[in-house]
Write a structure and sequence with these properties.
Number of helices: 31
Largest sheet: 8 strands, mixed
CATH superfamily of the largest domain: P-loop containing nucleotide triphosphate hydrolases
Number of strands: 21
Structural class: alpha/beta
Strand content: 5-15%
Radius of gyration: 28 Å
Helix content: 40-55%
CATH topology of the largest domain: Rossmann fold
CATH architecture of the largest domain: 3-Layer(aba) Sandwich
């Protein structure tokens, strides 16, 4: 028996099960439990009145001729309820961290925000610190601002906060929020909080009951430390500007506000910035509830063959460069660039085979279901490759570039035809760059690029538009919803949260659409399994407070070492925000000279013996260790202003030193030009082949797939901390002492094995916190041992 919840005006396909009764209950997916969870979770008297009062969304009456009503789903109800309590607790303690909500892409987080805002407006009046709060929805793209405005500006009556408006500029931001003492709901892009020398945001409002909802919280609001950026002034003098990241400016504008993070793909830094995870609704739950469709994965790889003779020629060329005094770093940089995936992916014959295979697969798939609209997205690794692929399609299938209102055979009403513009069947969507070749620059719209992108955006979302296939790189792969989008042809290296965001473009429900399909030409299967382990189920990437403490301790230890190295050098100007940028640049340059000219020889301990290294080598290694720890602990916002400034100062000096080290005539760029042709000749391709047996795909939300995920080893957060801080050093350290580097590598692998063996052994005897505590000694011991080896 299916038990579903909706309203009298809800279409049946939007009726959903209620799978949770209480806040701390696990979600039940058993069919026979649906009736019980519905009765207890919705129809107990107190709960029913709660839902009826606050959790049935309606538009303002002037917009609502159809009298639309949307009842919450269980994840929205519990998320809003738990987040409200977390925000109240945060305001009481004054820590500014209202919590993180992990909601799968496509799960309706915007409505969750609406339900939460109503709770805060109407159910906190008895809490003096909250009263009638001001809520600011922070987004990072104009498109998301428009989406938010579409819902919230028509919801004044539901929100009960008074004014609801979109903040269009910085002047309005100050004017609207500086004087307001209570209430109001504002939608604003984070870019309004950029740090401008001529137009400082400064303090806007220091009230305690300002609450910021941060949408897509894993992207732009995680950095809290100032950065040094280089540019030229009007007289062509180099200058070093100290700029604040968005999150820092936002925090200074509303110093006592509470920040809540909403994201479908949280990363470790998200939790440090917004606080602990308050509730979650994962991808597998969304599929089980029928909110999104399943995704099938089909790998098709264009295999690469390497001509060994040509490869030897490349190696000989690099040896000649070394004889001509090219630096080791430049030779290594060139090798990395020329062996990088970009060279392989952009090879012309491969792109031709790719175009043919995508065309044939798409046509065949559409022919098998001709009555359903099926749109497609091709994701490329760079704009240059994307445009080259577009030209291959144009050469082989010119009919796809004839502009029409609708495809042949598709009927549209007179009203629909009025709305439609002539469009090609395929187009590329991308930003433009000042260094783009003229042909690509003009194709992408040149100075009218934004307008072109908006027109293509609107056309792709119109079901009957002729525009059916889009080629993209970075645009449209996150936060872009087109329900009819069915096929995603991936030719870009993806991992972690970006991979999940990208493949989620094809998971939206659409009539007749049973699943979305990811056709993979690059081999993201292992990365997808790891990402699904984190974002598809119960695994968490949230760091513990001890993780951050360890990173902070390591950071401060290295910072003290660096300060000691510069005992005889005046660093005060770097800490002065009013220092002239041109002077700051000169000071950085002089500091780099100080590193070069120092005659000190320092000792490092490692592998049971003492090594002597130059001041420069010691300095660069210390900076690298400091940066590794800094990247982990800075999102917490716990570092002091001075230590953050010093960290940026030392990193900038290290950048100068590295640049000044590369003094030979044969640099990486020169070598790249020579080698690129040689690489193209060395690479040969056969046809695009399906990795799986013909016709076989993997459903990444099937029980069988999730069983396979149990075999995927995920690093525990403390172990991940160790790896992040130290593993990067192996290759560089090997240049100075290969024996020590090998020892370090063996030590890390041994630590990993020991850690997992320990956890495996303890699982049979103990669980949870005991198991975590028992593993603690291994991590701490390994961290100390590694620091000794690298020092």
């Amino acid at each position: 028996v299916k038990t579903r919840l909706g309203t009298v005006r809800t279409p049946y396909e939007h009726f959903y099960a209620w799978r949770r009764v209480n806040d701390d209950d696990k979600v039940s997916t058993l069919p026979f439990a649906e009736t019980e969870t519905m009765v207890k979770g919705v129809y107990s008297p107190v709960r029913f009145l709660e839902i009826f009062r606050d959790y049935i969304y309606f538009q303002d009456s002037i917009y609502d001729s159809a009298e639309v009503e949307i009842v919450c789903r269980y994840p929205q109800f519990f998320a809003a309820k738990l987040l409200k309590q977390s925000i109240v607790n945060s305001i009481a303690t004054g820590n500014g961290k209202g919590g993180t909500y992990f909601g799968a892409t496509g799960c309706g987080k915007t409505y969750t925000m609406a339900f939460l805002a109503r709770q805060l407006a109407l159910r906190c009046s008895n809490i003096p610190q909250v009263g009638s709060p001001t809520i600011i929805l922070i987004v990072d793209r104009e498109e998301l601002q428009k989406q938010g405005a579409k819902l919230f500006t028509k919801s004044k009556e539901f929100l009960n906060l008074g004014e609801v408006s979109v903040v269009k500029n910085r002047a309005q931001l100050r004017q609207e929020l500086c004087a307001r003492q209570s209430g109001g709901f504002y939608i604003c892009t984070i870019q309004k909080f950029c740090d401008r020398e001529d137009d400082k945001i400064g303090l806007i409002n220091d009230r305690q009951n300002i609450i910021c909802f941060s949408d897509e919280a894993h992207r732009t609001q995680l950095e809290h430390s100032k950065k040094i950026q280089f540019s030229k002034d009007a007289d062509e003098n180099m200058k070093a500007m100290v700029s604040k990241p968005y999150a820092k400016v936002l925090k200074e504008a509303f110093p006592h506000a509470t920040f809540v993070g909403f994201t479908g793909t949280p990363i470790a830094e998200t939790y440090q910035t917004f606080g602990q995870e308050i509730d979650r609704y994962t991808m597998d739950q969304a599929v089980a509830d029928g909110l999104t469709v399943s995704i099938k994965y089909h790998p098709r790889i264009a295999k690469v063959l390497l001509d060994k003779t040509k490869a030897k020629e490349i190696e000989n060329y690099y040896k000649k460069c070394a004889d001509d005094d090219a630096t080791y770093d430049d030779i290594e940089a060139s090798k990395r660039a020329m062996s990088a995936m970009e060279v392989i992916l952009g090879e012309p014959s491969r792109l031709e085979r790719l175009a043919i295979d995508i065309h044939d697969h798409y046509i065949s798939s559409c022919d098998s279901d001709p009555d359903r609209i099926q749109k497609a997205m091709i994701v490329c690794s760079s704009r240059k490759i994307a445009y080259s692929l577009l030209l291959k399609f144009k050469d082989k299938y010119p009919e796809w570039f004839e502009e029409k209102k609708t495809p042949d055979g598709v009927t549209a009403t007179d009203e629909e035809l009025k709305e439609l513009k002539p469009m090609p069947f395929m187009a590329m969507v991308s930003s433009v760059g000042s260094n783009d070749e003229a042909e690509m620059y003009n194709y992408l719209g040149g100075v009218k690029n934004n307008k072109r992108c908006e027109e293509l955006d609107a056309a792709f979302k119109q079901e009957r538009s002729n525009f059916h296939i889009v080629i993209v790189v970075d645009m449209w792969i996150t936060g872009f919803d087109v329900p009819s989008l069915t096929y995603l042809y991936n030719d870009k290296p993806l991992k972690k949260h970006l991979l999940i965001q990208t493949i989620s473009r094809v998971n939206r429900k659409y009539p007749g659409k049973e699943y979305g399909m990811v056709i993979d030409y690059i081999g993201i299967r292992d990365n997808m399994r790891e990402a699904m382990k984190v974002y598809g189920g119960d695994t968490s990437v949230a760091p513990t407070s001890d993780d951050v403490e360890q990173a902070t301790s390591a950071f401060r230890e290295e910072l003290e070492i660096l300060k000691t190295l510069f005992t005889d050098y005046d660093l005060a100007p770097f800490l002065n925000p009013k220092c002239d940028p041109v002077e700051r640049y000169k000071l950085l340059s002089k500091a780099a000279e100080y590193v070069f000219t120092s005659a000190q020889v320092l000792q490092t301990e490692g592998n049971g013996k003492t090594n002597q290294v130059s001041f420069k080598t010691y300095f660069l290694k210390s900076v690298k260790r400091m940066r590794s720890a800094f990247d982990i602990c800075q999102p917490s916002g716990n570092l002091g202003e001075e230590e953050s400034a010093l960290a940026q100062c030392f990193m900038a000096i290290a950048g100068f030193v590295r640049k000044m080290s590369g003094t030979s005539d044969v640099d990486a760029e020169t070598m790249n030009l020579v080698v690129s042709k040689m690489v193209e000749e060395a690479l040969k391709y056969n046809k695009v082949e399906s990795v799986l047996e013909s016709g076989e795909e993997e459903d990444i939300f099937s029980p069988e797939y999730f069983e396979k995920l149990s075999d995927v080893e995920m690093p525990a957060t403390k172990l991940e901390l160790l790896i992040k801080m130290l593993r990067k050093q192996i290759k560089e350290y090997g240049r100075v002492n290969q024996l020590a580097a090998k020892s370090f590598q063996e030590m890390i692998e041994k630590t990993i094995d020991e850690y997992h063996e320990r956890r495996k052994h303890l699982t049979a005897e103990e669980a949870g916190a005991t198991q975590e505590a028992a593993s603690e000694d291994i991590i701490k011991a390994a961290t100390k041992q590694a620091l000794v080896i690298l020092r």
